[in-house]
Design brief:
Helix content: 40-55%
Strand order of the largest sheet: 2-9-6-7
CATH class of the largest domain: Alpha Beta
Shape: elongated
CATH architecture of the largest domain: Alpha-Beta Complex
Largest sheet: 4 strands, antiparallel
């Protein structure tokens, strides 16, 4: 951290510019809005509407006041917010450091922006401690400092920051629409492909036969996974077990918490071995959320991938191409049929073999399936290209936010005004005022004590 501050600035302990509000056990009737650190997104200065509503009973928490600054204590997070009027008088978890700015020393918005800067976050993480969860303690918070500009300059910095970051946030919101549009685009491509609309011109020019109605069970072989015992899992090995978390939409994620089984168990469960061209599909997830039923193609396997329970394998027959069936298994049409048979308890949803075997499918000739796969892959490649550009743009926007904050707290965002009262002068004046207040209080207490003593003596003499 550099201490080469602009003229008129001063670096002081954070607890001299703000009060660290302690937690307390609050008593109230009824319910109150409650926000955990998980309720807000990273790097959200004023996350209006981004909170998750919760209700909690009275317990140790933080009670917000308008103008307070909340900053998540956990290492590696960037969740700093300024409490606006609509979020005042609400409960926040103890996972936040709650700062209440001294109005004589600094602007609350100046503090709110500073706690989102890389300078602050890196220092916070340096003093964070813990075994299971690394976070900033109250003791560690006393080590934090803040570069303090003159109050008038703080206001200019805040005004400039909010103008610039407002533009960045607007750009971020526009970028956030791209993944949604790409998801819709891919689903539209799949719907058009599997209904015949994508190759309607090719179909007519080649005078192909119409699509035939079938079910997955009549064109492919289905098998459920094996209940491998978790006690036998190894962290490394040759024979990897494909679990629910490894099956994502159109892709196997083999690096997602991989587990393996010994050679002997792999030899005993050869029936559940996956081969190139097989399709794996997840059968269990969160009920009503439709966060499973994802299908992925095995493209390269030398017999080292094995099927775990609640993951099914589909092996195509001669009348269907694996990639065509893979695409169809991710259409909205299939997923509606799949989840129509969902069972399970409140938290866990399950779909049985019938949700796949009995699923209807319209099957074109193999030659048209090949053309459909070619066109889908070409359009998906275009979507992948746009997605890569989106990722670069998003990373640039995130860097831009930190670049603007860094300039602000180096004193480079707005010009300095020599007429501004330097921070050091302000702090010294406040220190002298506080000392005089203490002296007056001490004098008042001493005078009261002498008066009471005199009265007591007079009473005793009577």
């Amino acid at each position: 951290m550099s201490d080469d501050l602009p003229q008129g600035w001063a670096r002081i302990p954070l607890n001299q510019a703000t009060a660290f509000v302690p937690t307390g056990v609050l008593i109230f009737n009824g319910e109150v809005d409650y926000y955990s650190t998980g309720s807000i997104q990273d790097d959200a200065a004023v996350p209006e509407g981004r909170f998750t509503f919760k209700s909690r009973p009275s317990r140790a928490n933080r009670w917000s006041r308008e103008g307070d600054v909340m900053q998540a204590r956990m290492q590696g997070t960037n969740k700093g917010i300024l409490i606006r009027k609509r979020l005042a008088d609400r409960l926040f978890s103890t996972g936040f450091l709650q700062l209440r700015a001294d109005a004589n020393v600094c602007e609350p918005r100046f503090v709110a922006h500073y706690v989102r800067s890389t300078e602050f976050l890196s220092t916070r993480d340096e003093f964070a401690t813990g075994s299971t969860q690394i976070a900033l303690t109250d003791m560690g918070a006393k080590e934090l400092t803040i570069p303090l500009a003159p109050v008038a300059e703080q206001r200019r910095i805040v005004a400039k920051l909010e103008k610039l970051l407002g533009k960045v946030d607007a750009c971020r919101q526009r970028l956030a629409k791209i993944p949604v549009l790409l998801k819709r685009f891919r689903q539209s491509v799949l719907a058009a492909a599997c209904s015949g609309r994508l190759t309607a011109d090719w179909h007519e020019n080649n005078r192909c036969d119409d699509f035939e109605s079938a079910t997955v069970g009549t064109i492919a072989d289905y098998i459920g996974g094996f209940a491998y015992k978790s006690a036998t899992f190894l962290k490394t090995g040759k024979h990897q077990v494909i679990r629910i978390g490894n099956v994502r939409p159109l892709a196997l994620k083999l690096d997602a918490s991989p587990v393996y089984v010994p050679d002997q168990i792999a030899e005993q469960t050869q029936r559940f071995k996956l081969e190139p061209g097989d399709i794996a599909i997840s059968m269990t997830g969160t009920k009503y959320k439709q966060d499973y039923g994802f299908a992925a193609l095995v493209t390269d396997s030398d017999g080292t991938l094995f099927l775990n329970q609640r993951v099914a394998r589909i092996r195509c027959g001669k009348s269907v191409l694996p990639k065509f069936l893979l695409f169809w298994l991710q259409t909205d049409l299939f997923r509606e049929f799949f989840f129509s048979g969902e069972t399970g308890n409140v938290n866990q949803g399950n779909v049985g073999a019938g949700g796949i075997r009995n699923a209807p499918i319209e099957l074109p000739l193999l030659v048209e399936q090949q053309e459909i796969v070619r066109r889908v892959e070409r359009l998906f490649a275009l979507a992948d290209h746009i997605e890569a550009r989106y990722a670069k743009a998003k990373a640039h926007v995130e860097k831009l936010t930190q670049s603007i904050l860094a300039k602000a707290f180096r004193g480079e965002l707005v010009p300095q005004d020599p007429n501004d009262e330097p921070a050091s002068v302000l702090l010294e004046r406040i220190r002298q005022q506080r000392n005089r207040t203490k002296e007056n209080n001490h004098y008042g207490k001493a005078k009261t004590k002498r008066t009471n003593s005199s009265r007591n003596r007079r009473s005793a003499s009577r």
